[in-house]
Structure formats: structure tokens, C-alpha cells
Amino acid sequence: MQRKMHGRRLPAIADVLRRIGMDDSEIVAALERAERALQRIERSLSHRQPPVMRDEELRAKVREVVEELDELIRQAAA
Question: Secondary structure of 5-59 in the HEC alphabet?
Fold first, then answer.
């Protein structure tokens, strides 16, 4: 019997799951969950800012915090 493969990235896993005794509906459900998880990961990665932008934002925040600390130190020393 030919089984329909779900999930464009995980077709080989169906053979493994079949060997350990999972029925078709379990295989389909597992592959669909894995495919959805991969899609969520891809969406998340596509929304990430490039490292350069994140680095600059982090540097700006650090500068701001250091300036505030410097001011607090000056006030404490006065």
C-alpha cells in the first residue's frame, strides 16, 4: 500500500514511524505538527532583524545605561 507523504521536509520520517508501529493517522498528525513547527520557526527567523541592527540597538541601550550610571556616580560623589 502506497502512503501519501505529508510535510515537504520530512518524508523519510514516515518510514521510521511505520517501522515502530504508528498507524497512518498518527504518522500524518506527527508530520503535520512537525511541519507547522518548522513553519513557525521560519516565520520567526524571517522577522528577526539583521545582526548589525540588533548590535547597534544594544550598543545604544548600553550607552544610555552607562550615561545614567555616570550621572548617579557624579551625584553620589558631590
Answer: CCCCCCCCHHHHHHHCCCCHHHHHHHHHHHHHHHHHHHHHHHCCCCHHHHHHHHH
Cα 39-42-47 angle, rounded to 5 deg: 130
pTM above 0.70, yes or no: no
Residue 9: alpha-carbon gap to chain centroid? 17
The residues, any chain, with a CB within 8 Å of residue 18's CB and separated by 6 or more, are 3, 27
CA distance 20 to 23: 9
Q: What is the pLDDT of residues 32-58, one digit of tens each?
A: 888 888 889 888 888 877 777 788 888
C-beta of residue 47 within 8 angstroms of C-beta of residue 74: no
